[in-house]
Write a structure and sequence with these properties.
38% helix; 260 residues; elongated; Immunoglobulin-like
């Protein structure tokens, strides 16, 4: 009798652990609080489920059709899919019973070429939500790398779907901000980017003077290396669309491909 009770206890414990590990990823929405997204972002790492479409041909209706061959798998952290053929679909769930309804979804690494966000239209269907500018309200043209999406989060659980496709590595974090917190975050980035650009110009000018003064062409090579390093920082911090705004998105994508 005692052995039977022990077996039942261990079976119950194992099922409880399995329930705790699986259910939060598939059934529970991430609840947002009024203080979230002001001083720091709310990370969606650990709250994502993904599906890889190797053909890149599946539509949103295919994805939500609940066909047996389309299974979203929970991931424990950020998106680290690397270089993938086709498209990566990610799904997450949110609710904001006490928090504001308007939020910003940030794709932290702004080097993914094609990002499409599908949000509930409130009538049982879904619609495509266009991205905003990295610097909110800065012109009407879209960034070469979409990275910020204004979303509405209702008080009840709502599912969101995001499709990512790129010739670059699909490695990124998805974060949620309130607009005030995000603007503060971008202002601090603006200061950092300003110092980086200033330092780059000083180094370029200094090496140019050395090249002229010493008549040594090696310093021109140093200038090329400095420019390349500066462009890498420019792209990784999401400023390519702003500083290279006179260029077409395809040209900006090509520049990044040449750099790397």
């Amino acid at each position: 009798m005692q052995q039977s009770d022990t077996i039942r206890f261990h079976l119950f414990a194992a099922l409880s652990i399995l329930f705790v590990c699986v259910v939060p990823q598939t059934l529970w929405a991430l609840p947002l609080k009024p203080t979230d997204g002001l001083k720091a972002p709310v990370s969606l790492s650990g709250h994502l489920a993904i599906f890889h479409d190797p053909t890149g041909a599946l539509t949103f209706n295919d994805i939500v059709s609940k066909r047996s061959n389309i299974q979203f798998e929970p991931i424990p952290s950020m998106l680290t899919q690397g270089y993938q053929k086709g498209a990566i679909w990610a799904r997450f769930s949110l609710s904001a019973s006490t928090a504001p309804r308007q939020w910003l979804l940030q794709v932290e690494r702004p080097l993914i070429e094609h990002i499409t966000l599908y949000v509930s239209d409130g009538a049982g269907g879904y619609s495509v939500l266009p991205p905003d500018r990295l610097n909110l309200g800065d012109g009407a043209d879209a960034d070469a790398y979409p990275a910020v999406f204004p979303i509405s989060v209702p008080s009840t659980r709502t599912d969101y779907y995001i499709r990512l496709q790129s010739s670059t590595s699909i490695t990124t974090s998805l974060n949620l901000w309130q607009s005030q917190g995000y603007e503060e975050y971008r202002r601090s980035d603006d200061w950092v980017m300003g110092m980086v650009v200033g330092a780059i110009f000083v180094m370029i000018f200094t090496n140019f003077l050395y090249a002229v003064w010493l008549r040594d062409s090696l310093y021109l090579l140093y200038i090329a290396v400095i420019i390349e390093s500066g462009l890498i920082s420019l792209f990784h911090m999401g400023y390519a669309s702003e500083i290279l705004r006179s260029l077409e998105p395809k040209t900006i994508h090509l520049i990044w491909g040449i750099i790397v």
